[in-house]
Amino acid sequence: MLLLKIRHYFIYTLKQLLFWMLYFLVLQAAFILFSYGEVKDVPLSHILYAFRSGLGLNLSAGTYCTIIPVLLVFASSIVKSNASKLTLWVTTFLLCCCFLIYSIDLALYHNWGTRINGKALWYLQFPGTVSASAGSIGHLKFIITVLLVSILFWVCYKRYFNRTPFVKKRPFNLSISFLIIISFLFISLRGGISGRPIGKGQSYYSKYPVLNYAAINGFWNFFDIVSHYKSQGNPYKFFTKVQSETFQSEFSQTYFKNALKISSVERPNLLFVYLESWGADVVGCLGGQPNVTPGFDALSVDGLLFKNFYSTGFRTEQGLMASLSGFPAQAQAYPMEDMDRFENYPNLIRDLSSAGFYTSYFTGGNPQFANTDVYLQSAGIDKINMELLAKAKRKSAWGALDEETFDWVLNSLTNQPVPFFSTMVTLTSHEWFEAPVTKIFTEKDIVATNYKNTVHYTDSCLLDFIGKAKKQKWYKNTLIVIMADHACNYPLNRRMNDPERYHIPMMITGGALKEVFKGAVNSNYCGHLNIPSLVCNELNLSPQKFKLSSNIFSENSFAYFTYDHGVGVLTKKNDVVYDINLKDVIRTKNKSDSLLKLGKFIMQSSAQMKEDYQIMK
User: Fold this and answer.
1) Which residues does the chain have with pLDDT short of 50?
2) Cα–Cα distance between 485 and 317 in angstroms, integer?
3) Which domains does the chain have, with CATH numbers?
């Protein structure tokens, strides 16, 4: 009599699958619970459907985890040994992998609004900077939760699921059983018997991104990203080449008209100040929470304030590339990883250097992060100032505190050749916003409190800097462009597809600003992409090479942003947010096919530009 028939082997396989399915379901529930603020007004039935929608990926991931124990049981039957120790070691290893993946996944979503993607994997090559937030209190609740769940399931596996059956050596019968089970597992991991294997898109069902992300199995998603990390080509094919060329011609004719000059001098110095993670939600003069940025609010009285300015993405290098190269953030591509293309990108630094400007960049942190130093050097920048990081007296995990950075920039600008084009970035309000600054605000949400306190600190440094700069000789001939590099989801926990998640402050001040613009408020919808065109017009340079940049003062001006799987375009009259995976508009004020076409055109064109710059090499 056989001690193992097909049903015994099949039952063992089902138990392995059941273990992993339960594990993934619990982590799915944890993901939703940690994101309760985003779904508290959503019908319960719609929330629960995330489990149904994610069933396919959970089964596929569980199958991948089940295959190795099943193979070990088969092998142990051939050599007459017990596989229980080996299967326990394998399961332990897989649980450790899941612990790391899901801990990072949860933290990443609550910071970036997305799960692990190619961009996150790319950041791993900068471990020194990435580790700056590794021990943050913002991470601990996720780490502890996933760790406890994983330990609990490990104990259950050891006690209830790791009873491997003993098998007599009957090669033919055993092989038949094995082939039947492997066939079943193969069908499970590919999502059925249809011609097309399962993909992430099959888990998307909701206009609420958090529920779509909750339906995606983190383990499956991670290895899918790894296996497709270096896929090439333009992923967005909305229009033919001829249609794109027509749209580009129309774009140039429509959005480059009626530019204004805002400087009272012919060749003003330019200083870009990027405020780390500042969102309009905490800027009083933009309708945000009061008393967080009293300095910026006061400066806007004498500056040109842009009321509806939006970031192109949600990371610093995306803001830099958009405002210096006219290159918008991309939903699934990461231009800053392609260092061999940098010299082909248009860049204000290169253009202004050719026009006789001294160019420089200041940071209190590490400019190597995200290849920023290579990007700047490829544009021919004269000096990357990074000495402060080593000698700063006070630091956060990301670098020197902003007070020292602003003072250092002030002293350095005095000794620079003129005219100059200089850029500086602040750091203290970088996530997870843990820095030794005065605690002004206290709220239940510790991370939101830290965010507001660090923004308030940087705001005071900014006000002090402008006050001191007014006493410098270079100030009267200088335009100072103050803008955030991007926003964040704090303090209101905005969803990634919410346009207000990208609403950021932007103001132009300085002694060279014409009197007529001092205290003025521009209500056009605009963003980082408008900056190259603005600078080129001011200095009588051609903006045509910045194909997707447009006139910030045009009545046709628009704001454009992308997130992990979508695109948004906003104007005074209309707005539209399009989800790529759902293949549908998920938000619109007044339905506008032309606005949707514009968003798709920019998304496709920016991805194509990335490929074209490689060909130009």
Assistant:
1) 1-4, 130, 134-135, 615-617
2) 8
3) 6-227 (no CATH), 254-615 (3.40.720.10)
